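hey can u check if this looks right to u? its 126 residues, i copy pasted from the old doc so theres a chance i mangled smth
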Amino acid sequence: MKKLTAIFILFLMVSCGGDYIDKPKNLISRDQMAEILADLSINDQATFMYPGANLEAGTRYVLKTHKVNSKDFVESYRYYVVKEKMSGIAEDAQEILLEKDPKAEKYVKDKTGTAGNPQNVPGLSR
């Protein structure tokens, strides 16, 4: 998770250097990007259950199952971050995760103390 987070932060820092970015040749659709992010977060959680698991191999497997190469994923991710569309994609990924595991919604509500929908989950920065 640390490596993945570091990569995303690096891309965020690099991508914020300019106001303009060209649309990548092989831009991944918003829906597919949300599905990939949901699967990557499941892969990330697997490393907590199996500390010796190889996160990189899992990431490659997720990209392979979605028939996306890493270069296209990175370019698409950078594009969506610069265009400020990543938060909407992350919300879609959260909905996908809740569809895959309905018990997760109850867990989130219990941990946050919210009785409403999962959109009431507080943000990462406070």
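The chain has one domain: 2-14+27-112.
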